[in-house]
Amino acid sequence: MPILSLYLSRILGNKIFLKNGEVLGRLKDIGVSTAIQHPVAISMVVKTRLGTKTYKWENMKITKKFGQYELVCNNPVEAGNLKDVLYLSKNVLDKQIIDVNGRKVVRVNDIRLALLDKGLFAIAVDIGIEGILRRLGLAKPLKRVLKRFGKTVSSKFILWEDIETVSRSNENIMLSKTYHKLATLHPSDLADIIEDLDLKTGIDIFSSLEHGRAADVLEEMETDTQRSILNELPVSKAADILEEMPADEVADILDDLNEEKVEELLNEMENNASLEVRELMEYPEYVVGSLMTTDFVAFENTLSVEEAIRELRLLKPDEDIIYYLYIVDKTNKLLGAVTLRDLVISEPNTLLNDIMNRDIIYTKDTDSIKSLIKTVTKYNLVAIPVVDDDMKLLGTVLINDIIYELMKSGKMYARR
After folding, report:
1. CA–CA separation, 401 and 202 (whole Å)
2. Where do the TM regions start and end (predicted)?
3. 3-class SS at 77?
4. Measured between alpha carbons, how far is 42 from 118 in angstroms, rounded to an integer?
5. What whole-number percentage of the chain has pLDDT above 90?
6. What angle do the packed helices 223-232 and 187-196 form, to 10 degrees?
7. Taking the CB of residue 27, how many other CB atoms lie within 10 A of it?
8. What is the pTM for the complete model shown?
9. What is the pLDDT of residues 42-71, one digit of tens each?
């Protein structure tokens, strides 16, 4: 049997004939299985004289005669409760989907199907202008006219394996199964996609992410979207996600929520995490304390190089907080810093106290951000430790946070 390629729009609404020539009804929708990689038709929704009914697809036959598609069902069998079904017209056509490769949200104008020996398969979606014209019955006439002038109608298809449908969980599709492809995207790309969707769909996708990944995505979102997401999520789930984030990021996000919501979230979070966030939120927005992160690596000066490396292996710190490893005494007073290079080239039994750089540039938590920017620029730093008046190490400020703050504030601190 040769492969017959056709479009959903060309068969929706067509009459379905029985073997004896009588009309069963008109095709309203096609249900495809989501349990396999390539979705194959397993059911059809038919508008009959007795109402809308769902039949199994297995006895359907499609042929093309005189440029039109003829649909014949030899033995219609009503379908029972079907699982893992995606309805092409209801769930995909005219809906927003996610182009995983293009990392963007697009609208489906038509669906390309392929009729093979093993069944009818959905193989691609049409997101181009031709899909719209085809449904209006204008594609062929317009093509003929444009051909005289050497022009064509733009076509744009996305293969089915490169899309992610955004049907909601109440449509009989599990989110964990529906959105598995999104796990391959960078958190920034995923944040952009969620922001392009309507709020309910965006929350559906966001809620399907495990807490650590959800935290990464939330950090990348615009302030308005962060606020909307946190206001809509159950408090317990929102608190679990916030606990996965650095305290300074959480403080920044909560600054944009109303006080009642902030208290609700902080009370739901674990005590230690909540306390860190509360302390950061007490700083005025124009001082260093409001910008610092409490995630940093510090060792006592009495540790050996070997012991410090062993601790690093256990901690597995993020790459952006190990520019410098800070050295403190037993009272957490900042004494100096070492780099990873210092550790690697030193003898294992050497004490950190003997290899640390004591001439370290630092800033106080109550200094202005304006002065911080001048210091970081002058000494070309990628991170700077933050101390209190007693030189106790409180946190660190990363260059990425400074750049973000400048972009967000329109360099208002630099103009103070």
Report:
1. 26
2. none
3. coil
4. 11
5. 50
6. 80
7. 22
8. 0.60
9. 999 999 999 999 999 988 999 988 778 999
